[in-house]
Specification:
alpha+beta; 7-stranded antiparallel sheet; 150 residues
Length: 150
C-alpha cells in the first residue's frame, strides 16, 4: 500500500493534526486518498524517548511531497489482528493485552516491523463507542513445515 505520512518521535499522542496536514496536501494536489493508519515503531517496555511513529494516509500520487511529509510503502506480511470497537483511548490497553496475554500463549514471535492501527472509521463519522480500529501485530513467518497455534 502506498502512503503519504508524517513521522513523529516520542509517545503516540493526538494524531488528528497530522491527518489534517496530510489531507490538506492531498486536496491541494487533488490526489485520491484511501485508508487511514498509524505505524508504531516501538515495543512495550521500551523507553518512550526511543519510540517513533508515522501517521499515514493511503494516497495515489507521484507528486513530490512538501517538507515534513514523505511517501512510503506499507508492506504486508503476517499479522495478528484485533478489532477494537470503542474510543481510541482503549488502543494502549488493547495492545498491552495483545502483547502480554495473547502473544505469550500463542507460540508466535513478533516480527521486526511496525505495529499498525488501521482506522475503519473516524471520530468525524461516528460516535466514540462505535469507532472500529484494527490493531495489527506483525508476526514472523513460521519455519517451513511448522504450523501455528492460536
Amino acid at each position: 500500500m502506498r502512503v503519504a505520512c508524517v513521522r513523529e518521535v516520542g509517545p503516540l499522542c493526538d494524531v488528528r493534526p497530522c491527518f489534517e496536514r496530510l489531507f490538506r496536501w492531498a486536496a491541494m494536489i487533488e490526489a485520491p486518498t484511501g485508508r487511514l493508519l498509524t505505524l508504531s515503531f516501538h515495543r512495550p517496555g521500551e523507553s518512550p524517548r526511543r519510540w517513533y511513529w508515522k501517521v499515514a494516509v493511503e494516497m495515489f500520487t507521484h507528486q513530490p511531497p512538501p517538507p515534513g511529509i514523505e511517501l512510503d510503502a506499507v508492506n504486508g506480511g503476517r499479522h495478528a489482528v484485533y478489532r477494537l470497537v470503542g474510543p481510541h483511548e482503549g488502543i494502549a490497553q488493547a495492545y498491552r493485552r495483545l502483547f502480554q496475554e495473547w502473544l505469550a500463549d500463542s507460540g508466535e514471535t513478533v516480527a521486526q516491523r511496525p505495529c499498525m492501527e488501521l482506522y475503519r472509521n473516524t471520530p468525524g463519522e461516528t460516535v466514540p463507542e462505535h469507532l472500529a480500529t484494527d490493531l495489527c501485530l506483525p508476526l514472523r513467518s513460521p519455519p517451513l513445515g511448522q504450523g501455528t497455534r492460536g
